[in-house]
Amino acid sequence: MVNIGESWTSVLKEYFESEKWESLAGKVEERRLQTEVYPQEQNVFRAFRQTDYDEVRVVLLGQDPYHAEGQAMGLSFSVPNGMKLPPSLRNIYKELEDEFGRSLGGVGDLSSWATQGVFLLNTTLTVEKASPLSHQNLGWEELTDLAIKQLNEREEPIVFILLGGHAKKKAKLIKNPQHLILETSHPSPLSAYRGFLGSGIFKQANAFLKAEGLVEINWLSVAEEKDESETG
Question: How much is the average pLDDT of 174-179?
């Protein structure tokens, strides 16, 4: 059994005891022996460990991990602090700055979102160096679809933010009416201007949470962490 945290283990236990998982794990291990695969093995399920199933308030769904060296860390759109911000994350920050009127600086680690209940999930959890979508058909989608289906069963409302074509396809898995689905283009430079920039999507998510009596996400927490590190 892989380490995905106690709460996720309870809802995904059957999958991880199946031959499907054995097959997928074997394929990924085979690829790691042949070439460089991201993220590092210990970070593949980081999103699950950092945001318990019972604590999810927002799902920020992306495509697959970053495929440049040192970027992927197991959280969608997030990179380790000190790493140059990828274009997609820069556009996410641009949208947040437009919505909330504050610069977020150069902090790339989005763990402060994860600890607030933002499930930073990709539809595919591994990728080969310099080869986007290279693990698209290995079997990851079955697992991530199952995670989304399990979240759909939650009684407490969840905001699903689906960014880009791959993420939007998952809308059909979210059937319970208490949840909110927000869809727009991927924040990459190729598509950000087709809907993502100017969408107000983060404020929409918070407005829904507030209306449901739930705690809003502090999307500016990454900037606040940077301020604390500089003054501490």
Answer: 97
Which residue of the set 52, 64, 98, 145 is catalytic?
64
Residue 89 structure tokens: 């994350």
Active site residue 64: yes
Residue 1 has pLDDT above 80, yes or no: no
Closest CA to 43 of 55, 28, 21: 28
Collapsing DSSP to helix, strand or coil, 123 comes out as coil
pLDDT digits 0-9 by tens, 185-218: 999 999 999 999 999 999 999 999 999 999 999 9
DSSP string across 135-186? TTTSSHHHHHHHHHHHHHT-SS--EEEEESHHHHGGGGG---TTSEEEEE--
Q: Reduce the DSSP state of residue 111 to 3 states and report it.
A: helix
Torsion of CA 199, 93, 136, 169, to 10 degrees: -20
